[in-house]
Every structure is written in structure tokens, then in C-alpha cells.
Design goal:
17 helices; alpha/beta; 8-stranded parallel barrel; Immunoglobulin-like
Length: 709
């Protein structure tokens, strides 16, 4: 393994200049007319100790302060901005808490400047505290009624600046992206129930790295770790309401001392890398946690940062002043605007420079939009999503563009849809250097056991081949059965519908309880896992699903900071328990996939042949078979140069007699795995099998061809 030096520099925000011994402050705002930098001794309870006018340089406001004044290397400094614009003019006699210079709360160009409110820096690497810490109702951050006249400087969220030393971090040796096994997890949930002082923190996750490696996971994908307000709209646990794209959530730090968050995070990355595990961050660039209008009142908006700095640049706003909300979260980020676009690029580059290996983009169809207004125009050539590889290259960040070759760089993964708006489903439309979450593979895998009469052999073939109907043969499909959104793997095979206690959550779930037949449930789970790991693309699994975590039917647990989400490892460590069997089963499926390189080869699809239950090759022209959801058998032969592997799957409610494909000379079939045999966990080559085999009801079996003894 090699080491790389990490840096904390960005293009905007607060930057320490070693040559001049100054802290330089830069803020983007296209529409602001005057900006005052406010520096504070403490994060709360005091007015600014220093107020400086910033010089306007194009769309950037700039000033610098000698460090002998700030002494920032010895202690963190706290700062924010008062910003004036067309709807609130700057006057020399302005006093915070007054209406001097006030014209309107917002104007016809959707400016919402309000110098009574102190804005934190979008580029800050740390926030001093959260809005709800000082004002649960957020009244002092709002513009409704007379709230716009409240001077909130003493209690406003501040930007924290404390320069960090460049450090070295272990770098994982390059390997093809399609060799990864992605494990999705919430950073607190991972270790919260483990008995150690660091439980639920970045440091706790680092201590658990070896255990993650032992599961077979090679890339851990964390739900958002950017700072967010956990008390926003009641309770927010998952963190999909980011307040800052460069700042870390303090609640996940073991050492919560201001100025130290990034150090602990870097140490976590380093520990995962030492264990040959890459790290993927879930990033939410489609909306911010600032919110939007309160009760749809145009006069009453939440004003924390972006809206105060340049509302019409950072957000998609209709001409009537309402925020567009295709994200379903109160606002949509204006990703094509220069300021927002550069912020996203700078943010990705920043985290890549902290050692992050991949990024999963929440509701990423928002980055495919190519419009500056609220119209929905999706463009795979001229949008930010299309430009991202080139833009990051300018910052010396390489985006991996071939998933079957070993390359040094980062991987971009899209959730290729949004929650609403015209043409919001964009699966398969991202540029070729993007990987994409594949809900077609998700739904097909579920239906194989849960709604078998809705799945045709053609759909199963499409699954095995990595959904070429969408990806045109390019190996970019992220295959999964379950994710944080929706049921866990255990729950989708144990519940017919979501729990009545669920807040929100979709009713469309493909799920069932198999009449509470435990054997059928376990067989179904094993069968689904087989199809996940035998399909072309990159498999992703929730780490909780490996140990059969249940949320008791809750399919939208975003607001549960409790054992609904916290993983319990005890049952999975008990030998021969259901949870232990599935954990070992997954571990061995991963091992089998790793040992057989054909699964990540460009030749995978070419190596496949499909067979009827009598062993004959299924004719491509036989639409009566391929498009018949009632056909009971699906067989696929992998003609690898290493070994031939045969996957046979039955939808029959009765035992099904099948014939295996004819063997090559001096070779025989050996049973490797049967989903209905629960004692059968490892995928070792077992007893010799005649070409005739009986598949148990609704089961799947794997056979490996070996030379005769």
C-alpha cells in the first residue's frame, strides 16, 4: 500500500496563507451588494468582536486578517456574514436588529437578503452548533412576521476555522471497481450496540474495520456524514438534510472538541484503508437542510446560509417566489448555477483529498438537469453530471471510467431518479463513467420469490446480464435487494405491508410473509442472495442485511435514533442460529464470486447460455418460453475457462425434475449449493451429481463441473 498526503484546502471559505500569515476569507454571491465579515470570540452568547467590510471581486467577496490578530493556530475562530442586496440596501447607519435599508423580504428576482441574520459559510469545514440547539422553533432564523427584524448574531450558527496539518494516509492498491462488494450502513448504527466507549462514532467505526473486512465487504458506503440538524422536523436520524457540504456531523465524533472533527474522520479513513476497504460517502447535492418556506408562506423563509448569501443562485425558485421541491424536502439545489456548481465540484474534490474513494449521489437525476430555472431538462452531455469528470480532472481528481480495469481515482455512483417532477426517472441515462443504482435488478430479485408469476425468463436473463436493456452492455449496474430506503432484507420476506407506526414510507413494497413459514422465508432469502451475487455488475448489500437486522416492518426509519436502526451483532455470532447461517452464507457467496474471476470479466455475458429443464439450450426465438411468466424453470450456464458453473432455479410449488447440461469430456457435475438445504452454507464442491437432479420447491441450486476422480 502507498501513502498520500491529505490537504484541507478549498477554493473558497477561510484559508490560511502560509506566506502572508493571514487568514483569507472568500464568499461567492452573484447578487449581493455588500458583505460584512463578522468574527466572534465564542460560538454563542456574544456579539461579533470584529466586523470587516469585504471587497467585491467579480462574484467573490474577499478580505484577509493577520493571524497575530486571530491566533487561529492555537484556537478555533468563529465567523459568519451579514449580507446586503437589492431587497435590503446597505446604509452607513445600519444597525443590526433594525429595518434600516429594508425594501422587501423578497423581490421579483427572488433575492432574500437580510443583514439582521448572520449566515454561516457554505465552505466551512465545521459548524459551531445546530439551529435547534438554541432555538427549537427556528424563529430567530425565519423571516415571517417581525422575525426578519431579529438580530440573531449571538445565537446564529457560526463557521469554525482551525487550520489542519497535512497528514499522510494509507492508499488502497488500485483494483477494478467491479471487484468491489459494497456494504451500505449508517455510521452510528454500525457500532452503537457494541460495548465500547467509541460506540456510534467515526472512531468506533474505525475499530470495527477488521470485522467489516471479515464479512467480505471491500467498500463501505456510509449514509450522509455531513452536518445536519437531528431535531429538524421532529427527529432526523439518517442525515439527508445537509447543512454544509464540507462539514462533518459532530454527533458522530468521539472527540467533539471544536477543530478536531476532520482529524478523527481522517483516522477512520486510514484504518479502513489499512484493512483494504474503500470508503464511499452518500452525498446530498439535490437539496439542503436549510429548508424553504414555512407553511408555504412567501414572507416566511428559513434563513441560515445559502438563502441569505444568494437565494436565487443556490436554489431553484419559481418566478412567484416559491421554491421548487422535486426532492420532496422543501428546496431544490440549483446545480447548474455557477456558485452551486463550483461548490459541488469543490466539495467532491475536498472529500477525495481526505481519502474518500467513491461517492453515492442521492437523487442524482438533479445533477442531470441542464437548466438554470425550474424547467426539467435532462441532458447527459451538457449537465453537471456530464461535466463532472472533466471538472474534477482540473482539480487533479481522476474519475474512474472503466470498471473492469484497475485505475487510481474515485467512483461516481448515481441514485438515478428524484422524488418528483417531469421525467424524474433517469436510470441508464447517466454518462458511461457513472455507476447507477439499479431498481430493475432490485425488483426482479424480489419478484423471483415474492411474485414469481410476474417474472419471465427474459427478465431473469436481463438481471443476470446486468440489465443491458438499460446500460447497453456497459458494466455499471449497482445491483441490490434492499437499501436504507424501504424494508430490510429480513422484513421484505416477513411482512406483507409496512408497519402502521412508519412515518411516511412507500406502500409499493414488493414484500410478503410466506404465511409465516420459516423454511420458505429462509429459502427465499438465500435464493435472492444467490441471484444478487450471480448477476453482472457490482453487488451492494446493507451490512444489517448480512446479519438479518429487522426494523419490525418499518420501511422508512429516517427518524428512528434507536434500536430500530442500531445493528445487533449478538445473534449473528451464535453458531447455527438463523442470523449466523445467513451471515456465513453471504460470506461464502462473496468468496465464491471473488474466486471465480468470470463474474467481473468483460467476457461474462458472452460466456452465458440458457437452458430448459431438459438441459437443451433455450432458443432465442422461443418467445413462448422467454416471455412466459408461468414457466417454472430458469437455468444459466457460465462457460468460464476456470470452471463451468450452472445455476438452476425453480418456481414450482412441487419438486421439479431437471437435467443438467451435458458435461465436457472427462468431467462431471458436483453440487455446490442448494438454497433449500440450510445446513449447506459454504460453496465448496460437494458430492458428484448425475445429470438428473430434483430441485425442491421454489429453490435454486449451484453446480460446478469438475474433472472425474
Amino acid at each position: 500500500m502507498e501513502n498520500i498526503k491529505l490537504k484541507d484546502k478549498t477554493s473558497l471559505g477561510a484559508i490560511y496563507n502560509e506566506e502572508t500569515k493571514c487568514v483569507e476569507f472568500r464568499l461567492y454571491s452573484k447578487n449581493a451588494t455588500k458583505v460584512l465579515l463578522c468574527i466572534f470570540e465564542k460560538p454563542q452568547g456574544e456579539d461579533a468582536c470584529m466586523v470587516l467590510e469585504m471587497e467585491k471581486q467579480g462574484d467573490i467577496f474577499f478580505t484577509s486578517v493577520k493571524d497575530y490578530v486571530l491566533n487561529c493556530k492555537k484556537r478555533p475562530i468563529y465567523y459568519g456574514f451579514r449580507i446586503f442586496g437589492p431587497n435590503w440596501e446597505y446604509k452607513e447607519n445600519f444597525e443590526a436588529g433594525s429595518d434600516i435599508g429594508f425594501i422587501s423580504k423578497f423581490d421579483e428576482k427572488n433575492n432574500r437578503f437580510n443583514p439582521n441574520k448572520v449566515a454561516y459559510d457554505p465552505y466551512t469545514q465545521e459548524l459551531s452548533h445546530l439551529p435547534s440547539d438554541v432555538n427549537p422553533g427556528l424563529n430567530m432564523f425565519r423571516s415571517g412576521g417581525n422575525f426578519h427584524l431579529i438580530n440573531n448574531a449571538k445565537w446564529a450558527v457560526k463557521s469554525v476555522f482551525h487550520p489542519k496539518e497535512d497528514i499522510e494516509i494509507t492508499q488502497v492498491k488500485p483494483r477494478p471497481f467491479n471487484s468491489e462488494i459494497i456494504g451500505e450502513v449508517h455510521i452510528k448504527d454500525l457500532t452503537q450496540n457494541i460495548s465500547m466507549p467509541e460506540a456510534g462514532t467515526y472512531k468506533g467505526a474505525a475499530k470495527f474495520a477488521k470485522s467489516i473486512k471479515n464479512l467480505g465487504i471491500t467498500m463501505i458506503e456510509f449514509l450522509p456524514v455531513n452536518e445536519y440538524d437531528s431535531k429538524q422536523n421532529g427527529t432526523n436520524h439518517w442525515g439527508y438534510m445537509p447543512l454544509g457540504y464540507f462539514s462533518l456531523a459532530r454527533r458522530y465524533a468521539y472527540d467533539k472538541t471544536q477543530g478536531n472533527l476532520l482529524r478523527e474522520f481522517r483516522s477512520m479513513i486510514n484504518e479502513f484503508h489499512k484493512n483494504d476497504i474503500k470508503v464511499c460517502l452518500d452525498m446530498v447535492y439535490n437539496h439542503t437542510g436549510e429548508g424553504g418556506l414555512v407553511n408555504h408562506n412567501l414572507d416566511d423563509a428559513n434563513l441560515l446560509s445559502y438563502a441569505l448569501i444568494d437565494n436565487s443562485s443556490y436554489y431553484k425558485v419559481f418566478k412567484n417566489g416559491y421554491y421548487r421541491s422535486n426532492s420532496g424536502c422543501g428546496n431544490d439545489f440549483n446545480a447548474n448555477n455557477e456558485g452551486a456548481l463550483n461548490l459541488i465540484i469543490d466539495s467532491i474534490a475536498f472529500w477525495a483529498n481526505q481519502g474518500v474513494d467513491a461517492f453515492r449521489f442521492d437523487l442524482a437525476a438533479a445533477l442531470l438537469e441542464n437548466s438554470y430555472d425550474c424547467s426539467e431538462i435532462y441532458d447527459s452531455i451538457n449537465s453537471l453530471a456530464a461535466k463532472l469528470k472533466e471538472k474534477l480532472k482540473e482539480k487533479n481528481i481522476n474519475v474512474i471510467d472503466n470498471f473492469t480495469q484497475s485505475q487510481r481515482g474515485i467512483v461516481l455512483i448515481a441514485e438515478p431518479w428524484t422524488c418528483g417532477g417531469k421525467d424524474c426517472y433517469q436510470l441508464g441515462n447517466f454518462p458511461s463513467f457513472w455507476a447507477e443504482w439499479n431498481d430493475i435488478s432490485r425488483d426482479t430479485i424480489r419478484k423471483i420469490t415474492l411474485r414469481p408469476n410476474e417474472v419471465t425468463p427474459r427478465q431473469m436473463k436481463n438481471l443476470i446480464e446486468g440489465t443491458p436493456t438499460k446500460f447497453k452492455g456497459i458494466n455499471k449496474s449497482i445491483n441490490y435487494i434492499a437499501s436504507h430506503d424501504g424494508f430490510t432484507l429480513f422484513d421484505l420476506n416477513n411482512f406483507n405491508k409496512k408497519s402502521s407506526s412508519t412515518m411516511g414510507g412507500s406502500d409499493w413494497e414488493i414484500c410478503g410473509d410466506y404465511s409465516n413459514n420459516l423454511k420458505e422465508q429462509e429459502n427465499a432469502i438465500r435464493k435472492q442472495l444467490i441471484f444478487l451475487f450471480f448477476s453482472y455488475g457490482i453487488p451492494m448489500i446493507q451490512i444489517g442485511d448480512i446479519i438479518m437486522h429487522t426494523k419490525n416492518g418499518n420501511n422508512n426509519s429516517y427518524n428512528k435514533d434507536d434500536n430500530t436502526n442500531y445493528l445487533s451483532w449478538d445473534r449473528a455470532t451464535k453458531k447455527d442460529s438463523f442470523e449466523n447461517r445467513i451471515m456465513e452464507f453471504v460470506r461464502n457467496l462473496i468468496k465464491f464470486r471473488n474466486e471465480n474471476t468470470i463474474f467481473r470479466s468483460d467476457e461474462f455475458v458472452k460466456s452465458l447460455s440458457y437452458h430448459y429443464d431438459n438441459s437443451q439450450i433455450a432458443s432465442p426465438e422461443n418467445g413462448g418460453y422467454w416471455d412466459n411468466p408461468l414457466d417454472l424453470f430458469f437455468g444459466v450456464l457460465i462457460n468460464s475457462s476456470q470452471k463451468r458453473i450452472y445455476l438452476a432455479s425453480s418456481k414450482s410449488e412441487q419438486p421439479l425434475n431437471i437435467v443438467l447440461p451435458k458435461n465436457l469430456e472427462n468431467k462431471n457435475w458436483h453440487i455446490c449449493l442448494d438454497s433449500s438445504n440450510f445446513a449447506n452454507i459454504t460453496l465448496d464442491i460437494k458430492e458428484y451429481i448425475e445429470r438428473d437432479y430434483i430441485l425442491n420447491p421454489q429453490s435454486a441450486a449451484i453446480f460446478v463441473e469438475c474433472e472425474n476422480a
